[in-house]
Amino acid sequence: MSGHSKWSNIKHKKEKTDAQKAKVFTKIGKEITIAVRESGPDPVSNTKLRDLIQKAKSLNVPNDNIERTIKKASGADAANYEEIIYEGYGPSGVAVIVTTATDNRNRTASEMRHYFDKFGGNLGSSGCVSYLFSDKGLIVVLGENVEDEDALMECALEAGADDILSEGEVFEIYTDPDALYTVKDAIEAAGYEIESADIDKIPSNYVSLTDENDIKYMNLLLEHLEDNDDVQDVYHNWENCD
User: What is the pTM of this model?
Assistant: First the structure.
C-alpha cells in the first residue's frame, strides 16, 4: 500500500488520550450508547457493539465502565445521541472529515461551521471530501519490540492483514475494517505489543502546507475540533501534521 505514514497523527491522538482519559471514556461511551440503541445490548448479535467493546478495551476503559454504559443505554432514560458526519476544507484545501455524536444537532452544526470559518476553511456538503478517503483497519506495533520483521509480517498476513509498512519506530498494519480485531488478536497472541488498533480513514492523496499562517490555522482548527465534546474523530489529509 502506498501512502504517507499516519504515525504522527496516531501519536498525537495517543498523547491526547493519555492526558484526557475521562474524555476518551465519554466518547467511546457515546458510541456504545448509539450502537445499543440501534441494535440491542447483545454483542453476539450486535457486531458494531462487539467491535466497540474491543475498541474500549484497547483504550483501557475498565470493564465495569463498559458494562454500566451498556446497561444505561438499554434503559428508557438513555441519552438520545445521533451520529452526524461533517465534511469541509481547511486552509489551502486540506480535506477534513469530522464524525460527531450529539444530542443537539443545531448546536453541533453551528459550532462546526464556526470553527471552519474562523480558521481559514469552509464547511462543505455531504460527500465533498469523503471520496478522497477509504476506511481501513490500522494496527500500530512498536518497532522496539519486534526482533524479526519477517515473522511479524508473516503473522499479520496469515491472520488476514492487507499490508504492512515499516516506519522506523513503528510498524503499521492495514486490514479490511471487518478483519481489524481478528488480526489484532492474532498479533497479540503471538506476543507483539500493540500501540493502537482502530478503523481509520486513509486519504488517497495528501496536501502539504508551506505558508506559516496556513499551518497555524490548520493546527488551531484541529485543536478546536478535537476538544469539542460532540466530536468523536477528526480525519484529514494534511501531510505535515506533527
Answer: 0.82
